[in-house]
Amino acid sequence: MKASIALVSVLGTLALVGIAYAVATAILGATPWQYLYLVVQKQRTTLPAAYEPWMWADFLALPTVPRAYRASDWATVQGYTARAISLEGYIAEAYRWRDGDVHVHLRAAPSAYCFPGGARQAQIVTEVTPAFQPPRTRWSAAVLRELCEQQVRVRLSGWLLHDFEHAEPTSAWRVSAWEIHPVTAIEVWEEARQAWQPLP
Description:
By secondary structure, the chain is of the alpha+beta class.
């Protein structure tokens, strides 16, 4: 009798957990596990052993993943977020967000302006998390904004991340829900030397 009561209690608890999970998923539009995974990926501090040099076409060819992951989407996201890439471009805007991250949006070609102003649809989002900001580096919002104003060529490197909160449909100001986040290396093209120079 006690075993039966215990079994009913366990089944009842599992049913409540299942219902809570389903409700949370319906409200959030994604599973709680996705949010946990996203937070962990955003807070990475490990420096990659190497970076894959990517072209803009490579980034634009990343698979479209829905907001609510299916099993196959989990495999796709986990495969890509284990990769670190380098991408060249020009800073379209740089600003500190309320979570402390510095958003550094890239565009493929230089422009006569640094945001605000102009179209935003073709930007790739990258983010410098607090772990990679001063005093560890000089990568402050002000320094990155200055590079934006100068429209110098930059190369940003770091971990790939799928920010599913910006999926379906992709926001008008970004090309994809994929990001480089966190950025773990920044280089500036020096014309005089014809070489990339690290931004310390």
